[in-house]
Amino acid sequence: CQQGGGTGFVMIPPWGAPIPVVHKLKFECTNNKAEYEAFVLGLQNAINLNARHIDIFNDSELIINQVT
């Protein structure tokens, strides 16, 4: 991604509507780095919401192969 690119994900809590989250990146990065940023930000948001169970859906084969 270029400097100023972004990442995003959607959190779907059991108690309400989906929550779209976008994050602007302030550094140059590859597409893989942007995918990791979204993955980590999603986990951090789940932790902040005290999630006890999460399902992660991701289309990045690199991330899927490295975290499973």
TrEMBL record:
UniProt cross-references to SUPFAM superfamilies, sorted A to Z: Ribonuclease H-like (SSF53098)
InterPro entries noted in UniProt: RNaseH-like_sf (IPR012337), RNaseH_domain (IPR002156), RNaseH_sf (IPR036397)
Gene3D superfamilies from the UniProt entry: Ribonuclease H-like superfamily/Ribonuclease H (3.30.420.10)
Single GO MF annotation: nucleic acid binding
Annotated signal peptide: none
Matches recorded under PROSITE patterns: RNASE_H_1
Domain spans labelled RNase H type-1: 1-68
Domain of life (superkingdom): Eukaryota
Pfam families xref list: RVT_3
Protein name stated in the entry: RNase H type-1 domain-containing protein
Source species taxonomy: Eukaryota, Viridiplantae, Streptophyta, Embryophyta, Tracheophyta
